[in-house]
Design brief:
There is one protein chain. With 173 residues, the chain is mainly α.
């Protein structure tokens, strides 16, 4: 089965006279997937094995939609918390640290484009959460001997070489 509807929407909504409709559709999509991301993240954090399995299945099925919602939220300079958490928790369950690092790095780069006054309150908390996520994944990935330290995290945390303490090319000054 071909996904014809999304292609139709993209083609139709990219017309210049449809910009208001496109914005409304994108906003509705983003808000809907904010709720979906919150629900999936809750399932992935559950202590119940069955709920966690359902969360993994839903996250795998909705991965592209959650990514789209995340990108729309970043473009709107709005909250990214729920779609990001769902994607990040899913990548935790699959132990795909490489993809998790790529996700964190791409989100961090976009968050750095926000005006400083936007990165206060909830959005500032989300910014720090992404930094924490990147640092955690770097340590996990580094422990497996598969990574180089990303320059952005070196700058943020004052990283220097310290093999004895961490067993890899990461340390804190």
């Amino acid at each position: 089965m071909q996904p014809i509807f999304p292609y139709f929407l993209r083609g139709h909504l990219n017309a210049p006279d449809q910009s208001e409709v496109r914005l409304a559709v994108e906003t509705a999509f983003r808000l809907h997937y904010d709720d979906v991301g919150d629900a999936i993240a809750g399932l992935l954090e559950s202590k119940e094995a069955k709920e966690k399995q359902i969360g993994q299945l839903l996250a795998r099925l909705e991965y592209e939609n959650l990514t789209t919602a995340l990108n729309l939220a970043l473009a709107a300079q709005d909250s990214i918390e729920n779609p990001y958490k769902a994607l990040s928790f899913y990548l935790d369950t699959t132990q795909d640290q490489r993809r998790g690092l790529e996700l964190g790095q791409s989100v961090l780069a976009r968050l750095e484009d926000y005006p400083p006054d936007k990165l206060t309150g909830q959005l500032g908390f989300e910014f720090v959460g992404v930094l924490d996520d990147i640092a955690k994944r770097q340590l996990l990935y580094c422990a497996r001997g598969k990574m180089k330290v990303f320059p952005q995290v070196q700058n943020i945390f004052g990283v220097r070489r310290n093999r004895r303490r961490f067993g890899c090319d990461i340390g804190f000054s």
